[in-house]
Design brief:
This is 3-methyl-2-oxobutanoate dehydrogenase subunit VorB. With 354 residues, the protein is α/β, with parallel strands linked by helices. Helices cover 40% and strands 19% of the residues. It folds into 2 domains: 4-232, Thiamin diphosphate (ThDP)-binding fold, Pyr/PP domains (Rossmann fold); 236-346, 3-Layer(aba) Sandwich (Rossmann fold). It is built from 12 helices and 14 strands. The strands form 3 sheets. A 7-stranded mixed β-sheet has the order 3-2-4-5-7-6-12, with helices on both faces. Strands 9-11-10-13-14 form a 5-stranded mixed β-sheet, with helices on both faces. A two-stranded antiparallel sheet has the order 1-8.
Length: 354
Amino acid sequence: MAKEFIKGNEAIGKAAILAGLDCYFGYPITPQSELPEYLAAEMPKVGKTFLQAESEVAAINMVYGAAGTGIRVMTSSSSPGVSLKLEGISYIAGAELPCVVVNVQRGGPGLGNIAPEQGDYFQATKGGGHGNYRLIVLAPDSGQEMADFTMLAFDLAEKYRNPVMLLADGYLGQMKEAVEFKKPERKTPANDWTIGNKLGKANVITSIDIEPEKLEKHNLNLLAKYNKIKENEVRFEEFMTDDCELFVVAYGITSRVVRSAVELAREKGIKVGMLRPQTLFPFPKDIINKLSEKTKKVLVCELSTGQMVEDVQLSSAPGTDVYFYGRCGGMVPTDIELVEQIEKILEGKGEIFK
C-alpha cells in the first residue's frame, strides 16, 4: 500500500477505521482535535457511528456501554480531558471490557497549554483513577507507530479484555509524516461475556462487588491478568547499546531527539546508546536491568519534571547511578543539550536523580 503524508492525529483515525472501529465517543480538545474531526467525516462513509458527547464524562460512559456489546470502541482526548474520564476508565477496567483510549498530551498541570509534554506518565501507568487496575499503555514515536499501535491497541484490548491507552503528545499529533497503512489481520474474539451473544446468554456487566470476599477475589484475578500481560507484551527498541558505556531511556517524541543526540555523541567518540520503551505498561524492566548491570550509568530524558525516571530507578541493577534531564511546559530539549548532559555525566559532574 502506498504511503500517505498525514498528521499523526489523522493517522490514528484512519488506522482505527481500518482496524474495524465501530463507535467513537469523544469531546474536542487541542492538540488532538484533528482526530475526532477526521472520524466525524470518515466514519459515516463506512456505516459506523461517530458521536460528539456533551462532555468527557459522558463520552467515557458511552464507551463503557458500547464496549459491553463486544464491538470495537474508542475515545480520545488530551491531558485534562483524560482526567475527567478516569472514573469511567476505572469502571471499564473493573468490568473487564475492551476499548482504546487515546491521550495526545499537552502541557500541565491545570489547563496548562497546548504544547507537547509527557506529564501524564503517572496518570497512564499507575492507574490514575481509583482502585487496583492497570491499563496497557503504548507509546508511539512517529506517525507510522501512531497508525501501527492503534491497530495493535484494539487487538490487545480484545485479547485481555482491558482498556488500552495510546499515549502520544502534541508534537506527534500535529506532525505530518509519511505513513503506510497496513491491512490488519483481525481475529474474531470469543464474545460469551458480552451483554447479548451468539450463545443466547444474557450477561450482566458491572464493576460493583458489594461483598468484600468477592471483590478481593476479583482484584486477585485482575492481578493475575496484569502479570500475564507483563510476561507477554513488553515491547522496546534498542539503539547502539551493544558497546555503550551509558544509555539513555526515552519514549515518544523525546526518543527522536535522543536518537540524534546518540548519533552526535558517537561522532565525538562517546559510546552511548538508547533504550526506547514502546510499552510503558508493561515496562521493559528486564532489559534496563541487563543494560544497567553493564554500564552502571543511565540517563532518563522525558518532557516532565521526572516521572518515568522512577520506573527506571526501580528497574536498574544495584549500584546503578540514574540521572535525569527533562524539559516541561511545552519545551523540548535539543540534541546538543543532551550531548552536553551525556558529557557531563561521563566526566563525573552529573547529579544523580533523587
